[in-house]
Amino acid sequence: MDEDVFAAMSDDTLFQSIGAAIVSVISAEDWLTAEITAEIEEDDNGVLYGSYATITSPDRLEDIEIIFELYNAMNELRNRMQRSEHRSWIKATFVLQNTGQFDLKFIYPNAHKGNDNE
Questions:
Q1: Residue 108 region, left (φ>0) first, then alpha (ψ -120 to 50), else beta?
Q2: pTM for the whole thing?
């Protein structure tokens, strides 16, 4: 999906799309938890990386193959927060459980060392 498709989505649909994109790139059927982290700068340059754990090996992390759709979705999340006058984050982590529950964690510019300002 391109950026315009994500821009037209509701917040809930955007979160569901991020979760679905993560699940689509996990190679194991018995995954337990997965997370992707986006580090995006002011000029929209950034990097995305992630990993997942399985039920049978919860302490062993496997890399997630990053697809451009995930980057576009996370960038749209950042853009929405900027438009709604929230502080711009420089790092966001989307943690997804195999139950469908998720959590978002943000790090903002000028965060004090040791304080993620989540």
A1: beta
A2: 0.83
